[in-house]
Specification:
Radius of gyration: 20 Å
Strand order of the largest sheet: 2-1-3-4
Order of helices and strands: HHHEHEHEHEHHEHEHEHEHEHEHEHEHH
Number of helices: 17
CATH topology of the largest domain: Rossmann fold
Helix content: 40-55%
Strand content: 5-15%
Number of strands: 12
Largest sheet: 4 strands, parallel
Number of domains: 3
Distance between the termini: 52 Å
Shape: globular
């Protein structure tokens, strides 16, 4: 089947002035030859958003031209889930990976949810199936299941609650059980296990971005650059033990605001540091980092194409969505209690 090619938008007079704030952010993050190439796409997408009644939600791992150029809502998985639940736009364009778009559709069933690239997947979501959850429940009868949001809708539907890296500990303890099946990230689960008396039964999944980091890389960043180390809990334990702070993407930003280190290595996806540079211009961000190949499948041209053609609509069967919605609602309820 042939795919329509959307022509590159033309440069319109006055773009530099109209999008001066965007230009200022991108000039600090991208080579000077790049931002003029992005600006016509940003302009075209902004116009299409108004025509379609659309909102663009972008994960913190999205490239700067998306995160700063066209996103209306940005943040980690929990923030995007909360935004989807509260959304009143006609159309949501989810700039992230497929499980995030599914989550948005589950929490906003009356909205049209588009994902710019259907192949934007996730190694964690691919690491476990609904059949695996059924087998685990049979092996551990009566033990509640907490599933990381980095899972398919079918896995969420068979779970008692979902969680993100920002609230995994709180959700686990809210189950009121001495044992909990925790899926699918073994490293996040191991990190939560160090903070709770609840016995966690772990799966063998891992994030292909974070599992590649090593303790040696972390030590090298500290020694060579005299940097503070901030690591995502999806990293292996040998990395977390070296870190000055371990937390979700949102927690990383809060730690930086509080501690104000002169130099920091964010041990996570590379675009996280890119997108924080504008918020913390006095902090020097250094390596190591790894790119997520799935997040990078989302581009300005395919966001534009999604809005032009209203393509790649995400649909979740009603029976699956109902179960997944219950699990996600429990996660969001724990989050609301934590904020009170």
């Amino acid at each position: 089947m042939s795919v329509a090619v959307v022509p590159r938008p033309a440069w319109r007079a006055g773009l530099d002035t109209e999008y001066a704030d965007v230009v200022a952010r991108l000039e600090a993050l991208l080579p000077c030859v790049e931002w003029p190439l992005h600006l016509p796409w940003i302009d075209a997408i902004q116009r299409l958003k108004r025509e379609r009644g659309a909102v663009v939600m972008a994960h913190s791992y999205q490239s700067p031209e998306i995160f700063h150029g066209v996103a209306d809502v940005t943040g980690d998985s929990l923030a995007l889930a909360q935004a989807a639940a509260d959304c009143d736009a006609d159309v949501i364009v989810l700039c992230g990976v497929h499980f995030m778009a599914e989550t948005a559709k589950i929490l906003a069933p009356q909205r049209t949810v588009l994902i710019p690239d259907l192949e934007a997947g996730c190694s964690l979501a691919n690491s476990i199936t609904a059949e695996d959850v059924i087998a685990l429940r049979a092996r551990h009868p009566g033990v509640p299941v907490v599933s990381y949001v980095n899972t398919t809708a079918a896995v969420k539907a068979l779970s008692d609650a979902c969680c993100t890296s920002a609230n995994a500990l709180q959700v686990v303890e809210a189950m009121g059980s001495e044992r909990v099946i925790f899926l699918p990230d073994r490293f996040l689960g191991a990190h939560v296990q160090t903070q709770t008396a609840v016995e966690l039964i772990l799966w063998h999944g891992a994030c292909e971005v974070h599992e590649r980091f090593t303790g040696q890389q972390a030590r090298h960043a500290r020694e060579r650059f005299d940097a503070k180390l901030v690591a995502h809990p999806e990293c292996p334990p040998e990395v977390l033990v070296e870190a000055d702070f371990v937390g979700s993407t949102s927690a990383m930003g809060r730690w930086l605001a509080q501690e104000k280190p002169g130099r920091v290595a964010l041990i996570t996806e590379c675009s996280m540091a890119d997108n924080l540079r504008t918020q913390f211009p006095d902090i020097d961000f250094v390596q190591p980092c790894n790119l997520c190949p799935h997040m990078k499948r989302i581009t300005l041209p395919n966001i534009h194409a999604a809005l032009v053609e209203m393509r790649h609509e995400v649909v979740v069967p009603d029976a699956v969505a109902a179960g997944a919605r219950r699990a996600l609602a429990r996660m969001l309820e724990v989050g609301r209690r934590e904020r009170v």
